[in-house]
Specification:
The chain contains 6 helices and 39 strands. The termini are far apart. It is an alpha/beta fold and 492 residues long. Strand 6 and strand 7 form a beta hairpin. Helix 4 runs antiparallel to helix 5.
């Protein structure tokens, strides 16, 4: 069969015969394909039992100026076997190899399609749709696969056939990204969301969304999340850094690696939870569970279970804790605690960390050791100062003296750094060693009856309303005393 690339037979030469004018024993044609890459041998006539002389074919190819890719061995075998009903490729050129365009391989999904997952019960999960393109710091964004150059071809006449070169593309750049030294890979310089525009890839460590609802599904992001309006019931927002909700939160779950800020408050409907390693600040908190590593700030906490690693601070016009249970490790400060109709409210100062720290037998020895180390390092620094003062007049008199002087300067800098680190450790230790009476409950308004107070291992039931009062554990009993100005100025 003729090659599929054969558009039109050209340079067709016929009347190739055995040299016998009176009685030709065979006739053949040599046909060059339109792209000049193949020469086909077709036998038009041959007496039975006659063999074609290969040299006749070689001579005819020479007459046609075919000089490249002649298949001499194939021609000889063809003539020897005498299977002239078949078509033979007598010569074949070299096709050009065209270059390959450069391309970008993305390490993330570049389209906006949403893939719904199936739950174990066979229903579709419309909440966990994972529609945020995110990346961690130093994560690979895309790789540039360079263009590959082509190779010249050669036709059966020995002429070069040009090739098309591969096209280059530029590696994207963008905000919060960096390029590898070989300029072939793009990386993220921060944790964040990936945004693609015409030519750039930007990384933003703040992911902003209008609402968290069916349109967004749950959010799990490596940076901070800003919700312009509300977080609807049943949905979850997780962020490695902060969560900011400018509207309100319903019965949802919020988890932050740092702080949570809710402008219009939260009604958890008895199922909502807030978890933060830092602080939680909300206009109000109602029917929710809150657990934070640091402090909770609000105008009102109503029927909530709250645990704060440091303080619970109620400020604003209400400044009230009503119902539920509030536990803090350092202090609880509010204007009013409980209600007139004596709804049970429990407040607690958890002294576990305080007791662990103060009951540690090695505390005093640790402080002593730090102070001894500081004195020893200071003596060493003073000794170096004496040597520096002694060498100062002789520095320029000898290269050796100058070298020793510089080494002493470096040694002094190292010792001073060690002294500063030891002093910092001592200061941190002292700050952690608060007195037990510093862990207190401060009520600048009314603490209503039926409020249950727990401070460490001691319990106290408020039977009658208390006003302008602080409560603390003095080591043997819970003391109830009037507030001092210093108590009101306490900042968490």
């Amino acid at each position: 069969m003729v090659d599929n690339n054969l558009d039109k037979d050209i340079d067709t030469k016929t009347e190739n015969t055995q040299e016998s004018l009176d009685d030709p024993k065979y006739l053949f044609d040599l046909i060059v394909s339109a792209n000049k890459l193949k020469v086909y041998l077709r036998v038009k006539y041959c007496e039975k039992g006659t063999l074609i002389d290969p040299q006749d074919i070689f001579d005819r190819l020479k007459e046609m100026n075919v000089i490249f890719g002649i298949k001499e061995n194939d021609i000889i075998i063809y003539c020897k076997n005498g299977e002239y009903f078949k078509e033979l490729v007598a010569a074949e050129g070299l096709a050009p190899v065209h270059g390959t365009d450069a391309r970008l391989e993305y390490n993330f999904k570049i389209d906006d399609s949403v893939e719904f997952k199936e739950k174990e019960d066979g229903t579709v999960d419309f909440k966990n749709i994972d529609n945020i393109k995110s990346v961690t710091k130093d994560g690979l964004l895309c790789t540039l696969i360079p263009a590959i150059d082509g190779n010249l071809g050669k036709d059966v006449y020995g002429s070069d056939i040009p090739y098309s070169s591969g096209k280059d593309v530029a590696l994207p750049s963008g905000k919060n990204t960096y390029v590898s030294e070989d300029n072939l890979r793009l990386y993220a310089s921060v944790d964040g969301a990936i945004y693609i525009n015409a030519k750039n890839i930007d990384i933003n460590n703040v992911y902003t969304v209008k609402n968290v609802d069916q349109t967004t599904g749950n959010i799990d992001f490596v940076g901070s999340v800003v919700v312009q309006c509300d977080v609807k019931a049943g949905f979850c927002v997780k962020a490695k850094d902060d969560i900011v909700v400018k509207g309100m939160v319903e019965g949802a779950t919020l988890e932050a690696g740092r702080d949570i800020l809710i402008s219009n408050g939260m009604n958890g409907r008895d199922v909502g939870t807030l978890t933060a390693k830092g602080n939680v600040t909300s206009k109000y908190l109602e029917n929710a569970t809150i657990k934070v590593g640091k402090s909770v700030y609000s105008d009102a906490i109503i029927n909530c279970n709250v645990f704060a690693g440091e303080n619970i601070i109620l400020k604003g016009s209400r400044g009230a804790i009503i119902g539920g249970e509030c536990v803090a490790c350092e202090s609880i400060q509010a204007k009013n605690i409980g209600t007139k109709n004596n709804i049970q409210t429990k407040i607690e100062i958890d002294l576990e960390k305080y007791l662990e720290l103060h009951n540690h037998k090695q505390n005093q020895s640790l402080i002593t050791k730090i102070k001894v180390d500081i004195d020893a390092k200071q003596s060493e620094a003073d000794e170096i100062n004496d040597k520096l003062n002694y060498l100062a007049p002789f520095i320029k008199k000898s290269p050796a003296n100058e070298k020793i002087y510089k080494l002493l300067i470096l040694k002094k800098a190292e010792i001073n750094k060690e002294i500063n680190n030891l002093k910092t450790s001592l200061l941190e230790f002292d700050n952690n060693n608060k007195k037990i009476t510093d862990h207190k409950i401060v009520c600048s308004g009314i603490m209503y009856g039926n409020t249950r107070v727990v401070i460490g291992w001691l319990r106290y039931l408020v039977r009658e309303d208390l006003s302008y009062t602080k409560l603390y554990n003095d080591g043997s009993d819970i003391q109830v005393s009037p507030l001092l100005p210093s108590d009101l100025n306490t900042e968490a």
